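S.,

Sequence below, as promised.
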Amino acid sequence: MRAIKDSVHDWVEVDGVAEALLDTPAVQRLRHIKQLSTIRLVYPSANHTRFEHSLGVYHLADRALAHLDVTGARADTVRAAALLHDVGHGPYGHQTEGIIQRRLGRHHDDVAHLLVDGDVGDVLRDHGLDPDRVAAAVRGDGKLGQLVAGELDVDRMDYLVRDAHHTGVPYGTIDYGRLLRALTFRGDDLVLAEGNVATAESLLVGRALMNATVYRHHVSRIAGSMLDRAGERLLDAAAIDPESFARMTDAELLGALREHDATADAARRITERDLYKRAVWAERDDVPGDVVDADYAAVRAFERDIADAAGVPERAVVVDNPGHPSMPESSARVVVGDEVRPLDQQSPLVQGLQESQRVQWRFGVYAPDEHVPEVAAAAERVLGLAGVGDTTEG
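The prediction came back faster than expected:
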């Protein structure tokens, strides 16, 4: 057994298959991917990694399994999945996930290709585990997979408290101990036991406040959008193949961006926090429906059209379309009397939080500071916006 000091959970005891997995390259790579990627440009202390988060998820999964009295190979499969749940992330985590999905057709929780062969596969098989079953648990498949990836998963419980701790904000400090003790199964569904509507509400309140103040901060959105476009240019130039891109660390990606003319300026801007500014920062009701519904290809076409209309280089325009507001946790199930009910049907508070997501929603168009006025005017014309230009400091 190995005991590891953690800034959130104090001592995390790791043994069995999880201890053996710790020193595999796939897990150690997570030391070099920051959990909050570009958010650390807003909150300087948010430098924690996906490695420590994965340890926290393992720890909470272990506690949940003990509470639910799950033992043996089934429990070890979940423990392994908890520790491995983030190994599919690319550099800068979610900020490059769109690139990897477009180029390789994979989501970050599609990890079977990383678990079947190599050191990870050897460790799993040495401990009597099926790598495909572990990969399925990472995706949230099956009864116990809901603990790793579901509306009430331990991944969410850890990242909320960990991100709040490292950013210094108070909003994500949920009572995960109460949540773990309230978990139960009704048939094959993971639910919260009777009397825990407020427990579930607290999770959603924490997530909603973290969304507003941390996860969707405009500076992080600007940097993340710039990183996405730079990553695409890097791959378009055949400077690196998509599979190698997906296995980079944060520092390796930034280094590769610095080395190529098409991406060097973006690398400099991200390194020096010399980011584009908001030319447009529009509320949901001010954005036409076809713009909100636009896919990535359409968004890139918007950028070209706006750049042409503004008379600026195409790289000087970044359109950031967050899609429709959503709150997947609102469908978490709670026991009320003899029924299992979705939380959003039981809680007026959750219904209010869903509306707050819509109110806080913003559509962005970003440009270098010297091009903001002409890009704002062009974006309003091209996208059918009316008077929503935003020259607020970005």
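The two ends are 48 Å apart (CA to CA).

Coffee later?
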